[in-house]
Design goal:
Order of helices and strands: HEEEEHHHHHHHHEHEHH
Strand content: 5-15%
Radius of gyration: 21 Å
Distance between the termini: 29 Å
Oligomer: single chain
Helix content: 25-40%
Amino acid sequence: MGPTRFRAFSIMTATCILLGLWIFKGPSGVSASPSWYAPHGTITIDGVNVPDVGPLPTSIPVPSTNLNYAAKIELGKQLYFDGRLSKNGAISCAFCHNPGTGWADPRQTSIGIGGGLGGRQAPTVLNTAFNHLQFWDGRARSLEEQAIGPIHNPIEMGETHENVVAKLNKIKGYQRQFRAVFGTDVSLQGIAEAIAAYERTVISTDSPFDKYAAGDSKAMDEAAVRGMALFKGKARCVLCHGGPNFTDNQFHNLGVPQVGPMKEDLGRYYVTKAEKDRGAFKTPTLRSITETAPYMHDGVFKTLEEVVDFLNQGGGANPNLSAMVKPLNLTAEEKADLIAFLKALAGEPIKVALPKLPKK
């Protein structure tokens, strides 16, 4: 091991020890049933046991193959904001996952290279470190795999993996950083690992709910407290939005109306080819949900009120509708209380200083 690689390894080892990072085991470095998922007990609704909600664990899930340390995170941050990963030099990760709009896209469906219109609403990067699978249909098994997917998507960044590696290798600043962090020139694997490392630092926590759960009885107002009771009871939200990250990381068909450029979107079915997965999409986290409008895979609902009304009526007509979806019969006051609780899931603001990008 040369001096540069030894230095990077030493930094990595020391950082991981100091931060106490939790390393997962299993496919792609991530366990299918992580032990952090239900540390707060379970709730039983209609005979179904689901994890109760609660504060996030203090350690962030990190795969053993891509440990986080400062130099790698900083490199990933630069790549995240660098439009040169796209064919025309204008579309960066941040273009559709904007820190200023909840790390999501405020448009109904995202726009890519040349103004091309995508068929889905770009989901938030917030707390994706806790996701077992990425994208609305779960086609990526890790953040590393997800990070490089948009690069060669013709509607998103429109570049090839080969070209983006060659392009970045011509930039001296990136050459130096990749050699310091990975001990190699720019590589696709390095790009994926660096961006994923940065994205694992984008965490929504310390919300009024978290403070309330930690013992501060004044952190949530009475409406939000009533809303929490509804969330865990009559409104049945916890069936899909349980656990510390307010998602079961599973896929459900809610009968969401299909809008946008796609006439039909079969969701998870494209990945599994299983009939039960037709029209099923990944349950999003509800943390900081007030910042990430519009909602659903196609951005069909502009407000949380619209979402609650839709679910209150029992979702939409669909032969593959999830068994968990049924009319809720919430009153106007109950719906308002539920919204108050959802607002209490907004985490502390994440301050982001734009990185200085290396020049040629």
